[in-house]
TrEMBL record:
This is DedA family protein. Keywords: Membrane, Transmembrane, Transmembrane helix. Belongs to the DedA family. The chain crosses the membrane at residues 50-72, 136-156, 176-195. InterPro entries: DedA_domain, VTT_dom. PANTHER family: ALKALINE PHOSPHATASE LIKE PROTEIN. It comes from Cohnella hongkongensis.
Length: 207
């Protein structure tokens, strides 16, 4: 098992989810999806509480994303170009994420959780382009909720078969990205409909 996840859980429990995912989103190497699937399996086996595992994973993910947003906002692209190599951020990853951001905008923060090599950089780029924090948080925290719930739940549902699920996901990650894009569009559509309905209910101002 990569990174010996089993031993880490034996020694540290839920904290593995929190610290590991936080470090992953700063762009340090950590198998976040593998860890969440295994945590889900441990909840299936009755070793961990599934809700607690999800909560720790969600906390680590959102805090990690928030840190990268503010680093991008304050330090900008020069920081990534100068220090990116220490965080294993290669020029090819930067170029790839830039292309995706030009295509999807802030929605990439939500979709990016399911795109290997991209999710680690979306928080930085949201800060670099000066995306308002409320907009960033809506996409980042919503995406984290969906991502963490999905992987912990898959590990719980499939139990001992969790590694097969991981291999299947690794070969079909683009399908998950498409599904995430559909969810993001649906959320945006509902939000737009609610705002439009509120505006229609507001009485017109008398001139």
């Amino acid at each position: 098992m990569s990174f010996n996840i089993e031993r880490l859980f034996d020694q540290y429990g839920y904290e593995v989810l929190f610290l590991g995912l936080l470090l992953e989103f700063i762009a340090l190497p950590f198998p976040g999806e593998t860890t969440m699937l295994y945590a889900g399996y441990l909840s299936y086996a009755g070793i961990l509480n599934g809700w607690k595992a999800f909560a720790w994973a969600f906390a680590g993910t959102t805090i990690g994303m928030t840190i990268t947003y503010f680093v991008g906002l304050k330090a900008g692209m020069p920081f990534l170009l100068k220090f990116g190599k220490w965080l294993l951020i290669t020029p090819s990853k930067l170029e790839k994420t830039q292309k995706w951001y030009r295509k999807y905008g802030n929605a990439l923060v939500f979709i990016g959780y399911f795109i290997p090599g991209v999710r680690h950089l979306t928080g930085y780029f949201a800060g670099i382009i000066g995306s308002p924090f409320r907009t960033f948080a809506a996409y980042a925290y919503g995406g984290a909720l969906f991502w963490c719930a999905l992987f912990v739940s898959l590990g719980h549902v499939f139990g001992p078969q969790w590694e097969r699920v991981l291999h299947a996901i690794e070969h079909h990650s683009w399908k998950l990205a498409i599904a995430a894009a559909v969810v993001a569009l649906a959320v945006w559509g509902v939000r737009w409909a609610v705002l439009s309905a509120r505006k229609k209910r507001q009485p017109a101002r008398s001139e």
